[in-house]
Amino acid sequence: MKRLKKKWIIAFLTISLISITGLFWKPAAFNHSIFGKIEAISGADTAWLLTSSCLVLLMTPGLSLFYGGMVGKKNIISTMLQSFICLGVVSIIWVVIGFSLSFGDPIGITIHGTTYGIIGNPFQFTFFDQVGVFPHNSMAPTIPFVLFALFQMKFAVITPAIITGSFAERVRFIGYLFFMVLFVPLVYAPLAHMVWHPNGLIGSYFGVVDFAGGTVVHISAGCAALAGALIMGKRKNRLHAPANIPYVLLGTGMLWFGWFGFNAGSSLAANGTAAIAFATTTVSSAAGMMTWVFFDRIQHRKISAMGACIGAVVGLVVITPAAGYVTIPQSLFFGFTGAIVSNLALNWPYLKRIDDTLDVFACHGIGGIMGMILTAIFANKPHSSLLHGGWSVFGSHLLVLLLVCLFAFGASWCIFKFVSKVMTLRVSDSNESIGLDLTQHDEVVE
């Protein structure tokens, strides 16, 4: 009991210190050279990004319902809270240091006089220093920079929330919090910087395109989920019926709705690219849903609401890196192909032996990998795909894909191992049998 109390006291003192530091933080001198004028702000772009930020925020509660309906009744609250709590924890990390690590001036490798970033300067935008109403010339030239930062915050929020499905029903809440605090700055932020910063190593040097987070969000979350499932080990009882299929349906609807902000909002403008991304997003999801249920049927499994929902989400995952770069007919192929490959992965006996509770790796990891491969083939952007750059460009994408998977899996594995050395990461057998709702939160679903 004393050890438990000490950890919670440390957590409370940490948030207290952060809050008090914010009162006395002194901003650096404003750097006018990287910011444009207020007059450059577009009202239409700003309105769309405000709307998109709200839509992406809605995805995390949607994910909590999606996951919560899939687990057993005695673990609904704990599973939903593990997603929902990201809105609090990650938002604070993002303001204090996460945004600066992701989008600060590049720190990395200098090639021919140009620095290609691996991580951002952690002190440039600390506590949202200089993140205000002025637009950033290179990252967000037509919207307030603070809006760009808040939009990106929602992507950071949902990524660790996705991971929770892999170790649902057996993780200690305090252990999960510590993992999340380390994952965002050590795994998510470097990937976001390398892919999305104008001088990021992956996006700028290797030329890899990721329109809305197939690499940064879904591959990283899927690989981290695989590491978590392996570290946590198998549940004592893996056989249970999903507690609430209507929750899954409702969560899927919220995710699909929010994904329009996720993908179409990533154009960072109210323009034609946003409209194309909006269309490809819904078409790929529709193709994923229908492919999944029909493929289940020809595999002698019944058509199910759960299958329809999983297929729709996989279609959304697969189109994410290419949403603004492909045509609507191509998006049909994205959803179709992604659903088949993820379905096969989900039912692959080898993966079945790994207790990934809600099949996060099979859906988000494999779906994200398929999305990146298909983007590397079809992306309609100069020097960004096989069809618009040749085999060398395609090869660069595959090399980066391999490196990203190794980095996300390896770094997450190390974080899980470190947390497990500091504290007990998994609940006891008796607590697992009773259920996490009661043992971790003293709450139950009647």
Keywords summarizing the entry:
single chain; 446 residues; mainly alpha; Ammonium transporter fold; 65% helix
Q: Would you tell me the structural class of the helices and strands? A: mainly alpha
- Gyration radius (Cα, Å) is 21 Å
Order of adjacent strands in the largest pleated sheet: 1-2
Assembly status: single chain
Layout of strands and helices, then pairs:
Blueprint: H1 2-24, H2 43-68, H3 76-84, H4 86-103, E1 106-111, E2 114-120, H5 145-163, H6 173-196, H7 201-205, H8 214-232, H9 245-264, H10 272-298, H11 305-319, H12 328-346, H13 349-352, H14 360-378, H15 391-422, H16 429-434, H17 436-441
Antiparallel strand pairs: 1-2
Helix pairs in contact: 2-3, 2-5, 2-9, 4-5, 4-6, 5-8, 6-8, 6-15, 8-14, 8-15, 9-10, 9-11, 10-11, 10-12, 11-12, 11-14, 12-14, 14-15
Structural overview:
The chain has 446 residues and is mainly α. It is built from 17 helices and 2 strands. The protein has a single domain (39-441), classed as Orthogonal Bundle (Ammonium transporter fold), CATH 1.10.3430.10. 65% of the residues lie in helices and 3% in strands. A two-stranded antiparallel ribbon has the order 1-2. Helix 4 (86-103) packs across helix 5, helix 8 packs across helix 15 and helix 10 packs antiparallel against helix 11. It starts with a helix and ends in a 5-residue tail after the last helix.
